[in-house]
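User: Can you predict the 3D structure of DNA topoisomerase? Sequence below.
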Amino acid sequence: MARVPGLLAGLGNSNLCRTSCCLGEVALDWTAGACIRVLLEVQAFGVSPLRWEGNVQNIVKWRQLEHRGPYFTPAYEPLPDSVHFFYDGKPVKLSLAAEEVATLYGKMLHLECTTKEVFRRNFFSDWRKEMTAEERELITRLDKCDFAEIHKHFVERAEARRSLPKEQKQKLKEEAEKLQQEFGYCILDGHREKIGNFKMEPPGLFRGRGEHPKMGVLKRRVRPEDVIINCGRDSKIPEPPAGHQWKEVRSDNTVTWLAAWMENIQNTFKYVMLNPSSKLKGEMDWHKYEVARRLRRVVDKIRAQYRADWESPETKKRQLAVALYFIDKLALRTGNEKEEGETADTVGCCSLRVEHVRLHEKADGQEHIVELVFLGKDSIRYNNRVTVEKLVFQNLQHFMEDKDPGDNLFDALSTASLNKHLQDSMEGLTAKVFRTYNASVTLQEQLRALTRGLPGYPVPEGNGGAWDGFGTSASAPIGYSPTPTRS
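Assistant: Sure. Here are the predicted C-alpha cells for DNA topoisomerase:
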C-alpha cells in the first residue's frame, strides 16, 4: 500500500455511504468520491489495495461468535380513550389484539396501497382473525369502518415528536445510541464487529413491491420463541426477554447469521446479519467480484459459443443460446420454479411465456425489435424494447410458432439445465455473475470517461499491464441494455 501515494488520504472523516466500486477491489463504506479516488490510483499505479487472507469459500466462517441476541420491539401500547374506531358511524371499543391491527391500517390511510382491492381484502381477512367472536359478528364490511381518528392520532404524534425541544431530541438520540452499543455489536474471532439489523421488525401490513398478491397481509410480531440463535459453542448464550425462551440455540460456524426466524408472509427465513462494513461481509463482497473477474477470462469464449449455437439443429441448444444472450445482454434473472398460487406470477428468463414477448420486424426506423413485458422480481413490471441480432430474432419467431399465449417460450429449457450449463462453462458462474461483470465493465468505462485528463490521476488504457481488472478490452456485449423502463 505504500506504493500508492495518498491512497487512504481524506477517508477518515468522510460522510459514509455504501459505495462498492464494483471492481472487486473496494468493498468498504467510503464516500463515492473516495471510492473513485482509490479506483483511479489503483489504475494509475497498477496495484491492488485490498486483499484478504484465506479463501472465503472455506466451510468454517468463524471460530468465535458472541452477541446479545436481537432487540425486540416493545409490547403494543393501547390507544388513549379519546381516540375511537367507528363502525357504521358508531364508536366501537376493540379488543387489544384487534385494536393493534386496526392501528396498522389507520397509520397507512394516506398511502395509495390502502385503496387497492387486493390490499384491503387481505388486510380485512387477517384482521378478522385477530378479532373476538363478538367483533367478527359485528364488523363484517371494511367499507363501513372508519379509521380517521386513529390516523389523525398518529399524524399528531409524529408531528409532536418532530417538534420536541433540542434537549429531548438529544436524550432520545442518546437512548438509541445506548441500544446500539448494547445490541448492535458482536465479538467475531476476537474483534468487535457491527451488526446490521439487530432490531426485530415490528408487526405491520405487508406492502411488497409492484402488484404483489399478498399486499395487505399481516406481518405478525416476532417472538423469542420464533427465533433461532447462532453463537459460539463456548460463548455466553444471549438471554431471552424475561418470561420467554429461544426456539433453538445452535453453534453453526458454516453460516454468517446471528439469529434466524421464519416470517409468515412468504414463509421464508429472515436473518440478523453482520453490517456490510464488517470484515466477513467484506470478504464475501471481495469474493463476489473475484468470481466476476474470472468471468473476464472466459466471457469471449462463452459469447462465441452461444452465438454459434443460434444455428444449431437442436432446438434445446438454440433455446439455451438465446436464453444466455438475454441473461448477458439484458441482465435477466434465470427465474426459479415455484408452486402455482403460492407467490406472485413473477418470471425470469427460463419462465418467460409467449404472452410476455412481442416481435417487431421494424419499428422506429430499426429492425429486429423485441419487446418484453412481464412481472419481474418483487412483482416489479419489466418493460423493455431492445434491438437484437437477426439470428436471435429468427429463433424467437420459431420458438413462438404454434404456441398459445400461456405456453413457455423456452419449452425445452429449465432453470436447472441452464444453471448446470453455466457451472460447466465456469465454476461459480451464475446469471448474477453476468450482471456483476457487465455492470462493473459499464461503471469502469463511465469512470474512465468522466475522469479522463483530471490532474494527478493518469489513467492508462486497458488494465495498464499490472492490475487484473475489467479493462477496456473486456467490454459489455454489443447493445448491452440492462435497465428497462419500470411501470
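Confidence is low (pLDDT under 50) at residues 1-58, 462-476. Residues 279-309 form the longest helix (31 residues).
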